[in-house]
Every structure is written in structure tokens, then in C-alpha cells.
Amino acid sequence: MKNLRDFTHPELVGLMAAMGEKPYRAEQVYNWLFHRRADRIDAMTDIAKSFRERLKKDFYIGGIKILGVKKSSDGTGKFLSLLEDGSKIESVLIPETDRLTLCVSTQAGCALGCRFCMTGASGFTRDLTLAELAGEVIAAISMLDEGERITNVVLMGMGEPLANYGNVLRFINVLTDGKGFGFSHNRITVSTAGLVPGIRRLGIDANVNLAVSLNATTDGTRSRIMPINRKYPMDDLIGALKSYPLHGKKNITIEYVLLKDVNDTLEDARRLTRLLKGIRCKINLIPFNPFPGAAYERSSDERAAAFGKVLLDGGYNVFTRQSKGADILAACGQLRGRYEEEASKEKPDDAF
Ligand code: SAH
Ligand code: SF4
To answer: Which one of 43, 107, 223, 291 has the fewest beta carbons within 10 angstroms of its own beta carbon?
Structure first.
């Protein structure tokens, strides 16, 4: 049995043709899958019963199952979902004044093992399918209050999006397709730890926003905290960013998690201003979010402010990201997809 939600629009057109059906069938089915969010084939009521029966022989509509939701005091909502094979992933809904951002996971776990990241510490299970990526959006929509609408989608949850390149590209297709979820390219952001070939391909294949987790200013430090730097060192990464095609008003977001006494000196800040010269970018300084067993500490507010000032004086746009959802371990890098240990410490009505 195949999951119908694993097909993009062009793929459904091909499938319908192979089944000897007229092209309008692809439109109809696609509309039911992503727009009307049908959860079973029989819910597609304006599709002839005979055709539904035929579909049901080889296909089903699968999604992800929400196991529980946690709301942070700042409004951030994290939800834990179960995949068909028993893997668990998390997605986060982040409300801000003028937007409602959904942060999706692209893999169960992550193979890149960054030392400051809880997802990295939990190892890698597998890539998410298109049905699961879309399932995160559908699950989030199902939890919205009346009148609420997701305005932005960031691929910044568990996993490395560019290590699941094929499905991420197909997901972007469905996200931005007017007959799919209908988001503008400008409201989608892919965050990567710096897979250089993937960055180059993405620049050609899609027109979404790119965020890069730089997190250090020398190869020595970066390789220590992000082992992927040994494969794609900073020269290559910076080169890929310099040649990344930026359409319209787009710029690249440079993410920089401040780790006390590791990458937060003023010398680092100065080096960063030099490194990023010639790249149209804005810099997001992210306070480190500690988790049980983490080997790092958050930089002091004074240090973070001084670091930011060097960048501002260097002419960069600098934002200090607030740790939204930190109290429910929903902030950046805190997603892990396992709640047993955490849930056991909580009151039953809070626990999953
Ligand atoms: N794999 C991708 C996207 C997921 S990680 C990437 O690395 O970009 C999303 C962001 O969370 C990255 O910028 C990462 O540097 C940051 N991050 C990871 N662990 C963190 C932590 N403990 N505190 C703060 N930010 C963290
Ligand atoms: Fe993976 Fe990103 Fe975490 Fe690194 S920071 S381990 S790439 S999820």
C-alpha cells in the first residue's frame, strides 16, 4: 500500500495517467490531500465511488498522529507526533505579533551530531517522507484556533533539511503550490548546518530563504562543535554563500548560537564581520538553550550585547533571537522527540 500524500502534484498527474485516468483527477485528488486535508480515501466525496474503490486497492492516506501538545508561558506550542514506524518527532508553533511560524522537523533525529544540540545528541533514525512533512503542517493547522493562520514555515526543527534533500524539495513544492498549501516562497526558510553541495543545489532548485548555522569563526572551533565542518570547511561554506543566488529583497540568515567562552569573544565578533563581507545577510544571535547533560553554557547578556555591538558597528543587521518556548524545551536545538524521562517528572495532565 502506498500513501497518497507522498505524491506532489506533478507526480499525481503521472500516477493518474498511468492508471488511465483523465488529468483532472490529479487536480481533484491533490486538492483533497493538501487543501481539504482528507484523512481517508472515502472522505473525497466528490470523487466517483468506483474510482475511490480502485484507489483503495493500492493506496491509503496516511498522516502523523499527534500524541500531545505542550504550551509555553509565552504562547509557543510544541507538539509531539508519532510516525507509522513508531518514530517520534516534534514540531513547534511560534506566535509573534505579526506572524505565526511553524517550525517543522525534517528528519527523526539528526546524523550531524553538533555538540550543542539535543537532537544531535540523540542520534539519527531516518529521513521524513513528504507525507510526514506535510503531515506536520496538517497537524498544526488542526490545532489552530478559529481565525488563526500559519504565516511562515521554517525547516528548523529536528534534523538537517539538506540531508533529506529530495523530500524537502518536494515538500517545498507542495508548500508553495497555490493548489497545495499556498505559501509564498518568501515565507519559507530552510536552515542548514552547512552542507555545501546541498546549498548550491538549493540555490538552483528553489527560491526560498536560506539560513545557515555558522556558530563559529575559525575552522578549529567550528570542527569541534560541528563535526560536519571537517567535511565542508568554512572556506567552502563561505564561498557557497557568496555565490548563492538571492532574488528580490532576500538575504541569507546567519545563525550564531553564543556559547560561553567558546565562540563569543570580541575577537570572534570581529572575525565574523570580516568573514561575512560581501554576503547579503542578517545575523541572528541565538542564546544557547541548555539541556540536561549539555557541555556548554549560555554567554552572559553583557557578552552577547558586546558581541552584537561589534557586528552592528560593522554595518550588519543583527537580531538577538528570544528563546521562545525555552520552558517547555521547545526552543532551538532542544527538540528530541522523546518524552519519557521528561513526562515522568510532570503532573499527569501535563504529560503526554
Ligand atoms: N539542522 C539545521 C536545522 C535544525 S537546528 C541546522 O543546524 O541549521 C536549528 C538551529 O538551532 C540551528 O541554528 C542550531 O545552531 C540551533 N541550535 C541547536 N542547538 C541549540 C541549542 N542548544 N541552543 C540554541 N540553539 C541551538
Ligand atoms: Fe543536526 Fe542542526 Fe542539531 Fe546540528 S544543529 S545536530 S545539524 S539539528
So the answer is: 43
